[in-house]
UniProtKB/TrEMBL annotation:
Primary subcellular site in the record, as a coarse category: cytoplasm
Catalytic activity: guanosine(10) in tRNA + S-adenosyl-L-methionine = N(2)-methylguanosine(10) in tRNA + S-adenosyl-L-homocysteine + H(+)
A GO MF term: tRNA binding
Listed name of the protein: tRNA (guanine(10)-N(2))-methyltransferase TRMT11
Oligomeric form and interacting partners: Part of the heterodimeric TRMT11-TRM112 methyltransferase complex; this complex forms an active tRNA methyltransferase, where TRMT112 acts as an activator of the catalytic subunit TRMT11.
Domain (Ribosomal RNA large subunit methyltransferase K/L-like methyltransferase): residue spans on this chain: 190-320
Length: 460
C-alpha cells in the first residue's frame, strides 16, 4: 500500500532484540490508539529503521508511551540512499512544515546516530555543517533545546563488512523515546518475589502490548505463578486477577528460588510484587484453582487473558482429579481434603485454554500465550485454533537448537456457543494437538544428546 504523503511519514528506530515480536507489537499498539499500520517498506526483517505512515503526532507519542521494541520515533523530513539524495529530499519537504520548529525564538540541536559504524567527532561536525541549507533561524542549545533533530545513517547488519558509505540516510525531528527503561526498572533481579519460571520483564511488557491491554481493563492469568505478567498489565493501568494450582506459590510459601536463600520470606507474594512498583491498587486477587476446571459462571469477564502455561520442564503440568481417575495398579492415596494431582497433557491444556478464552473474553478481547514446540516437527497447523478466536500473530523465541516457544496472540471475533467447544477439532487436527504432549521427552532427549556430545568432545 502506498504512503498517503510525505507529511505523515515517521521513522521508527527499533531495538535489535526479540526481532519477531517487533512488528506485531507496533501493529497492536497502533490499532489500540486508533491508527493503522501503513508502510511501503515491504519487509522489515532485522533492520532497525522502519518508515511508517501514522495519522497524527498524538498517536505517535501514544505509541512510544507503550512500546518496548522501539527506541525512538522521528517525524521524517528526508530520506535517501546517499547524502545527495537526502539533501534533495529535504529541499522538497514543505518549508511551512519546518518553520514552526526553526523560527528565531526557538532553540535546537542536531544529533548524529549511526548503526553499525562509529564516526569521529570531526566526521559528525562535517555532517551537521552540510545541513546549513535548512532554514534554521533559532539558537543552538546542546543542553536543553526545545527541538532535537537527528541525522541517522544505516550501515547494514554485518559488523564484519562495514561499507564506506551508508545504505540509507534519514533526517527528522525527534518526537519521543520508547519504554526501553522498563526492562531494567522491572528486572526480575530486583523483584521481591520470583520463582523458577518468572517471566522476563521485557517479554512481559511485549505480551501486554500484544494483548492491547489498556487502562481499566480486567486482565486474567490462569497460570499466574509469581505474577510477572500481572505486573506488566497493571503498569499499563489494568486491573489484574489470576489463578494457579500451586498453593505454595500463590501464598508465597515453601522453598525460595533465589540463590543462598532457603525459604521464602513472610512478605514474598504476588501482592507484595505489585506493591513494590506502586501498583497494588490494580490487584484484584489470586486464587488457588485448577485451570482445567474453572469455577466461573457463564459470562464474559476479561478484556485480555495473558498467560505462560507450564511445559513440564521447570514446572510440572498438573490438574486436580479424583481417586477414580488414577490408573489401575497405582497405589491409592489416603482420603483427604487435598485433591489428587494428575498429569495434565499439553494438548488438553491448550484445548481448555482456548475454550475458556472463547467463553470469558469480551468481543475484541485478546488471548496471548506461549506454545512450546519441537522445531524439527513444527508446522503451522499445530497451533491450536478455535472458531471464536482469530489468530493475530505467531512469533518464535528459540530455546535450544531443537526446541522453541511461540508467542500466540488471538482475538475473540464471535460469541461463544456450546457447539463451538470442540467443533474445531477434526480427527487429523486432534492428532496434531497431541504432538505437544511429548514436548518434555523431546526436550530432554535433546539435552541428553548435547551433554553426551560435549562429554565425548572433552575426552578426545
Amino acid at each position: 500500500m502506498a504512503l498517503p504523503g510525505p507529511l505523515n511519514r515517521y521513522l521508527l528506530l527499533m531495538a535489535q532484540e526479540h526481532l519477531e515480536f517487533r512488528l506485531p507489537e507496533i501493529k497492536s499498539l497502533l490499532s489500540l490508539f486508533g491508527g493503522q499500520f501503513i508502510s511501503n517498506q515491504g519487509t522489515y526483517g532485522k533492520s532497525p529503521f522502519w518508515i511508517l505512515s501514522i495519522p497524527s503526532e498524538e498517536i505517535a507519542r501514544n505509541l512510544m508511551k507503550r512500546t518496548v521494541c522501539a527506541k525512538s520515533i522521528f517525524e521524517l523530513w528526508g530520506h535517501g540512499r546517499s547524502s545527495e539524495e537526502l539533501y534533495s529530499s529535504l529541499r522538497s519537504y514543505p518549508v511551512e512544515k519546518m518553520v514552526p520548529f526553526l523560527h528565531s525564538d526557538s532553540t535546537y540541536k542536531i544529533k548524529i546516530h549511526t548503526f553499525n559504524k562509529t564516526l569521529t567527532q570531526e566526521e559528525k561536525v562535517k555532517r551537521i555543517d552540510a545541513l546549513e541549507f535548512l532554514p534554521f533561524e533559532g539558537k543552538v542549545n546542546l543542553k536543553k533545546p526545545q527541538h532535537i533533530f537527528s541525522l541517522l545513517e544505516d550501515y547494514g547488519l554485518d559488523p564484519n563488512c562495514i561499507p564506506e558509505n551508508p545504505h540509507n540516510v534519514y533526517f527528522g525531528r525527534w518526537i519521543a523515546d520508547g519504554q526501553r527503561e522498563l526492562i531494567e526498572s522491572y528486572s526480575i533481579k530486583k523483584r521481591h518475589f520470583i520463582g523458577n519460571t518468572s517471566m522476563d520483564a521485557g517479554l512481559s511488557f511485549i505480551m501486554a502490548n500484544h494483548g492491547k491491554v489498556k487502562e481499566n481493563d480486567i486482565v486474567f492469568d490462569p497460570f499466574v505463578g509469581t505474577g510477572g505478567l500481572l505486573i506488566a498489565s497493571a503498569h499499563f493501568g489494568a486491573y489484574v486477577y489470576g489463578t494457579d494450582i500451586d498453593y505454595n506459590t500463590v501464598h508465597g510459601l515453601g522453598k525460595a528460588s533465589r540463590k543462598n536463600q532457603k525459604w521464602r520470606g513472610p512478605d514474598e507474594n504476588i501482592r507484595a510484587n505489585l506493591r513494590q512498583y506502586g501498583l497494588e491498587k490494580y490487584y484484584l486477587d489470586v486464587l488457588v484453582s485448577d485451570a482445567s476446571k474453572p469455577s466461573w459462571r457463564k459470562g464474559t469477564y476479561f478484556d485480555a487473558i495473558i498467560t505462560d502455561p507450564p511445559y513440564g520442564i521447570r514446572e510440572s503440568t498438573r490438574r486436580t482429579g479424583s481417586q477414580k481417575e488414577i490408573p489401575k495398579g497405582m497405589e491409592k492415596c489416603p482420603e483427604s481434603h487435598v485433591p489428587v494431582s494428575l498429569s495434565y497433557h499439553l494438548s488438553d491444556m491448550f484445548f481448555d485454554l482456548l475454550n475458556f478464552a472463547a467463553e470469558t473474553l469480551v468481543l475484541g478481547g485478546r488471548l496471548v500465550y506461549w506454545l512450546p514446540v519441537y522445531t524439527p516437527e513444527y508446522i503451522e497447523e499445530m497451533v491450536p485454533s478455535h472458531p471464536c478466536l482469530k489468530l493475530i500473530s505467531n512469533c518464535e523465541q528459540k530455546l535450544s537448537s531443537h526446541t522453541s516457544r511461540r508467542l500466540i496472540t488471538m482475538e475473540k471475533v464471535k460469541k461463544f456457543k456450546n457447539r463451538d467447544q470442540s467443533s474445531h477439532l477434526p480427527n487429523d487436527h486432534s492428532l496434531l494437538y497431541q504432538g505437544h504432549n511429548s514436548f518434555r521427552e523431546k526436550y530432554f532427549s535433546g539435552v541428553t544428546k548435547r551433554i553426551a556430545k560435549e562429554e565425548k568432545s572433552s575426552q578426545e
